[in-house]
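Journal club prep — side note

Before the paper discussion, L.F. wants everyone to see what a predicted structure for a comparable chain looks like in C-alpha cell form. Sequence:
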Amino acid sequence: MRILLTNDDGVAAPGLLSAKNALDPLGEVVVVAPERPRSASGHAITLHKPLRLCEAVLADGSPAWATSGTPSDCVTLGFDVLMSQRVDLVVAGINAGANLGFDLTYSGTVMAAMEGAILGVPSIAVSVVGENGQMEYGPAAAFTAKLARLVEREGLDRWTLLNVNVPSRRTEEIRGVRFTRQGRTQYDERVERRTDPWGRAYYWLSGSLVEDDTDHGSDVQAVKEGYISVTPVQLDMTATQLLARMKDWEITK
C-alpha cells in the first residue's frame, strides 16, 4: 500500500511521527507536511505565490518533505509531484486537538483528507482530543493503522472520507469505537476584546463549547463518553431535504 501522510500541525509535530511509525508496516509512507503549523487553515489552497517542496528529517531521522503551503497543498503536491498519482490512501494527522462537529470545516487536517477524497483516494483524518495540551498519541496511532487496513479491504464510497477522533487516554481507558454522525458544535463568548499597551483594541477568537445533551449518536457525544468516534463525511453538501421543499416555492426570474 502506498500511503500519503500529512497534517496541519507542521512537519515537526509529534503526532505526525506517531502516525508514520504506525503506518510503516503497511507499505510505503510518503510524508508531506507544512513547514510550520497551519492549524485552522480549512480547505485553503495557495494560488497567489509559488509553492516550495524541501527535503526534511523527522525526529527519528526518517525522511519527509516540507512545503510552504497549506495541508491541502501538501496532498496535491504529494499526489501529483512526489507519488505520480499512485496513492492508495491519504492519512491526515494525528492532529493535536479535536475536530468534532461543525469544527471540521475549519480544520486543515480534515480538509487535507477531503482533498484526498476529491482526488479519488480513500482518505482518513485522525485527531486526538485532550485537555491542557496533554496528548496521548499511542492509541490513536495504533487505531489509525487498524483502520487503514480495514479501509484497504472494504474501501470507501467515492467522494467520502472518514473523520476520526480519539480520546487522549491510555488504551485500556478507551471504552470502544462508535460509528457516528457529525455533531453540532456551537460556542458562546466567541470574541474576547483586549487592549494593547497603547490603548488600542484588538480581538482574540476563543469561546466555550455549548453543551448539547440532545445530540445523541454524534461524534461529540461519543468522545465525551470515552469512545473513539469514526464519522463518514461526504463532499456533497447539498441540503437535499430543503432542495425538495424548494420545488414548491413560487419564484420567477
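L.F.'s comment for the group: Residues 42 and 108 are 4 Å apart (CA to CA). Keep this in mind when we get to the figures.
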